[in-house]
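Researcher: Structure for this, please.
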Amino acid sequence: MTSASNTSEPLLSLKNLSVQFRTGSGVVRAVDDVSYELNPGETLGVVGESGSGKSVTVMSLMRLLPEASRPTVTGEALFGGRDLLTLSNRELRAVRGSGIALVPQDPMTCLDPVFKVGKQIVEALRAHDQKSRYSALRTRAIELLEMVGISQPERRFDQYPHQFSGGMRQRAMIAMAMANKPKLLIADEPTTALDVTIQAQILELLKEMQREMSIGIVLITHDLRLVSEMADKVVVMYAGHVVERGDGRTVFDNPQHPYTLGLMSSLPQASGSDRWLRPIPGNPPSLANTPSGCPFHPRCALANDRAECRTSLPVLRAVAGADHRSACHFTDELTPQKQAELTSARRATA
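Model: Predicted structure, token format:
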């Protein structure tokens, strides 16, 4: 984990952010009343299953959701004290790249296959530097490729994306993201589809970039091991809601929501006699038709069909420590002994 910066003003502050889409089957509530903060130099890990709203949250604050999906975004997304949701298109273009940069899930689909990688990095530089000559931008692009660990950067500058390996494409996307020295880097599943060795290299690269430039990082992933290595703070999302939030060590040492416990119990174990994975039963709900009450209650071993879980939506409240919050009606029951019982019950049914 990184050492967080002590600052009075957050770098990024989401307040009651909600995102809805109008579809033929009704209104999809992809993100529902999400709030969290990130300080300069910190890493925030956002975890949850596919469809939990992790990526939609950050795409909405950068206003990159496709207009064809007819999104409705409410709440606040403060970056450096300015609400990104109220900026003009011109103001927002100035923020993208130089203030906030994005490393997307799949670099192969984000790098244009008909343009050389180096030229694409040059265009990212040119977007915020209209005065420099092409030769100077080319030199800077080669320096960026070298900075992210791509060997023979001058030769690679003139190659196309299909000539790069998966790990090299991801490094190129990081180079492009860092081109204009942003204050905030959003890494959306940065190690998906990469082998374990390359994953470790990409993570170390992100840590190095953060140490050198004191950037804030929002790390979006379903991989809890990755978050445990990187994150100062953790936000756990389920069905568009934040169900647990706190500093990384506290959340992993003492999970205070049954969903977080389920995610951790689903991880493969490196040792011990228990060789079976212990998945959370059932499937995430459709966001067009979420259950009443707590959205996790149909899959929750702690709910036991209690009326409060079925009828009342829990709110985040302080648990364990001052900065640790959980949205569970019965989080007081989630003692270490109860955590062990729930884990054992999943083991027995796996």
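Researcher: Any notable elements?
Model: The longest strand covers residues 26-38. DSSP finds 13 helices and twelve strands in the chain.
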